[in-house]
């Protein structure tokens, strides 16, 4: 029994290590307000039709990332029945989701907490053409996913990039990830930058108070440093006549 347990632990560790090696670094910056705004725009245009953010409100998002309420209402709230103070819910109902996608569409409010920012970034950059799948695409890190490549118009049609390489004296075919045909609206660098904006917004949504905590933390640390300096000078003043 102990041997089986050790084997399972070792095997699981190896799998986790392998997954970490293939993940691409998002390198997003939560303090980049323009990036958060662009990410919110991408989410609303490409994700919100199916995915909800049931723990976020339009108005809270707008105020957190510096979007005027009027601009949010006129340009980023597509459901005419929704108001600025409403929760960010998808218009796709449960029966439609089961009929079209075979199951319930996940809420994305906490997705980066559950999966990690780098995983989400890599996932969105891992779709490739696969005519055997219902939506004509597959995903390298989440195989057989029932989801279309919603960002295909930006990235273009992608295929697995196989190359021949000489390894130990033998020619072997190596999978070097995916490669776009170049028929998208964005080039590779622009697409990765857009993905970075999107996951930046998703990370913010998973913990909106983080922005405020970090800003408050800077003021608190600055106050403590000044307090230490003042206390040190006060101590010298009190003890200068004592030998």
Automatic annotation (TrEMBL):
Coiled coil located at which positions? Answer: none
**Signal peptide positions on this chain:** 1-17
One Pfam annotation reads: Cytochrom_C1
Question: Metal-binding among the record's keywords?
Answer: yes
Q: Which UniProt keywords apply?
A: Heme, Iron, Membrane, Metal-binding, Signal, Transmembrane, Transmembrane helix
Q: Which GO terms describe its cellular component?
A: membrane
Superkingdom as given in the UniProt entry? Bacteria
Q: How is the cofactor bound?
A: Binds 1 heme c group covalently per subunit.
Record domain Cytochrome c: where: 34-206
Q: What is this protein called?
A: Cytochrome c1
Native species: Paraphotobacterium marinum
